[in-house]
Amino acid sequence: MVAMRDQIEAAVIEILAEQLLLTPADVAPDARIGDLGLDSLGKVEAIFALEERFGIAIPFNANDAEAPDEAPDFDFSSVPAIVDGVARLVAQKPT
Amino acid sequence: MRRVVVTGLGTVNALALDVPGTFAALAAGRSGIGPLTFRDHARLTIGIGAEVKGWDAAARFPQGLPLYDRVTQYALAAGAEAMAMAGLPQDLGPRGGVILGTAAGGIATWEDSYRAVFAEGKARVSPLTVPRLMHNAAASHLSILHGLQGPVLAVASACASANHAMGLALQQIRVGAADVILTGGTEAMLCFGGVKAWEGLRVLAPDACRPFSLGRKGMVIGDGAGVLVFEAEDHARARGAAVLAEVAGFAMTADAGDIVAPDADGAVRAMRLALADAGMAPGDVGYINAHGTGTLANDRSESAAIRAVFGAGAPPVSSTKAMHGHAIGATGALEAIAAIMALRTGILPPTIGHQAEDPDCALDVIANVARAAQVRAVLSNAFAFGGLNAVLAFRAA
Are residues B74 and B116 both part of a single domain? Predict the structure, then answer.
């Protein structure tokens, strides 16, 4: 399970780095997305890449992204939040 | 420079299959949004759209149906209604034209032909595939049916297509290239591939379109067509035509920034230039039919732009997309019809589905219920992906 989480974290960082034109070493494991400078298209491309990589469907609506007073369907605010969300969806996958 | 007026309207959309039904629905604040019904819709994440209902294509087009994608069918029905309302002669010839917007053209025809060869393993597609799917199909069929031999073309600028088309029509008549132009837009993007593509952008609302409201979740796609008869005023007066409104001004600008994110400055420049082209002061405008897609980004940016142009006393604003959906390349035409309804009837159509005021959209939003007001001038905004802004100004006849 820990190994799986590490794999997911590595994939999240790699995919974000690709969208940001950075190397994975430049994206900290606790980075906040708002601080990374990812634009709206970069965000939906990263989500698409995660869905393809893990065979999951991420319930993300760009119009939720900045509504802090209500819990979004998928928390895309930081690397750990994304890793948690992807791990949950991977665990829910029918085996 | 000749003045240009509107002498006919026609439409097919999710609210109704004609102008009177559409006016009634807009005034009543009725929604045309409902569950999707087209082939394979159950495989989509998004389950709602503003589909045209009760469309019997075979009965409407007993002759030409194999040639007409739905995008053409809708335009032909709207065009026939507009021509009849205008009472135009059928012998306009080189002095008549057609300039229609569409963003996706015959997308369902693309889908059908790819499905046939890729999924079903067929060896060939219909020989009519190319003439059905080309973006100018609707404009060309209108020209053929009504004998319009002057400027005829399609305009593609995503969600601003219809406004750009109407702006070009205005300019063509002003400079004397034609006396009459059928203009507006048509769209039939509600098919599996069309909605699947939009889903990827994560901007579609799962429940309803709630422009300018707190809690809005994005846009809802609609289908349909709006066709307006733009006519040189001297030509209309000479034949004793009823004038519905004056097409007073138009302007277009580009953000030259992001391919999808809107920039308020481009919208500000388009509204100011359209007012200047119309010879209007901001205080003359009594109603704005906003682009108002219901996304966080558009509505916030558009609100800021309207405040910048009109100040704290900005006129009442609504987005009728909450009723007829976002008809992409046709939407500007549906909204021009709504704006002309406001001028003609004194009923400002509402933004339905509005739940609570958003401090980021500090406007006088006509929420949920139509408002009665005598207005002499209106604006209709369209701001497209690609950073393209097109604004029309209409004045009471």
Answer: yes
User: In chain B, which residue's Cα lies nearest the Cα of A68?
Assistant: B215
State whether A44 and B200 contact (CB < 8 Å): yes
Structure tokens at B90: 């059928």
Copy the structure tokens of residue B8. Answer: 């006919």
CATH ID of A2-92, from 3.30.450.40, 1.10.1200.10, 3.30.465.10, 1.10.10.10: 1.10.1200.10
Ordered by start, the domain boundaries in chain A are 2-92
Split at pLDDT 50, 70, 90, the class of A3 is confident
B326: annotated active-site residue: yes
For the stretch B81-90, pLDDT in tens is 999 999 999 8
| Beta-carbon contacts of residue B119 (< 8 Å; ≥ 6 apart) | none
What ipTM was predicted for this assembly?
Answer: 0.85
What are the phi and psi torsion angles at B55 (to 5°)?
A: -90, 110
Burial of B348 (0-12, 13-18, 19+ CB in 10 A): buried
Compute the distance between CA of residue B72 and CA of residue B141 in angstroms, rounded to an integer.
8
Q: Which residue has the tokens 């420049």?
A: B269
